[in-house]
Amino acid sequence: MARSSWKFSYINYNLYKYTYFSKFKNKKIIKTFCRGSNVPNVFLKRAVLVHKGNVFAKITFSKYHVGFKIGEFGVTRKPFSFPNKGKKVKR
């Protein structure tokens, strides 16, 4: 039996509270620090602010995001580019 068939999806308690309890369902944007939780079906077309270390990234989930970890969509790396060198002056 493969590991994926017996391993359950993990949802942090705070995310569970915001998605399934009736008094928190009216929140438009959810802020979370837990990047290891799976994306449930309830998050479809909802905005979630995911902590990236120093800032929060706003992510709107689609049907293709369901089942993956939340942290996969909050990109933390800066794009790399070589610095521009000045032109040489001919004498």
List the keywords:
single chain; three-stranded mixed sheet; alpha+beta; 91 residues; 30s Ribosomal Protein S19, Chain A
Word description of this protein:
It is a single chain. By secondary structure, the chain is α+β, with helices and mostly antiparallel strands. It has a single domain (9-72), classed as 30s Ribosomal Protein S19, Chain A, CATH 3.30.860. Helices cover 13% and strands 15% of the residues. The chain has 2 helices and 3 strands, in the order ααβββ. The chain has helices spanning 3-6, 13-20, and strands at residues 29-32, 47-51, 56-60. It has a 3-stranded mixed sheet. Strand 2 and strand 3 form a beta hairpin. It is elongated, with a radius of gyration of 20 Å. The model has no long low-confidence stretch (mean pLDDT 82).
Produce the secondary structure layout:
Layout: H1 3-6, H2 13-20, E1 29-32, E2 47-51, E3 56-60
Parallel strand pairs: 1-2
Antiparallel strand pairs: 2-3
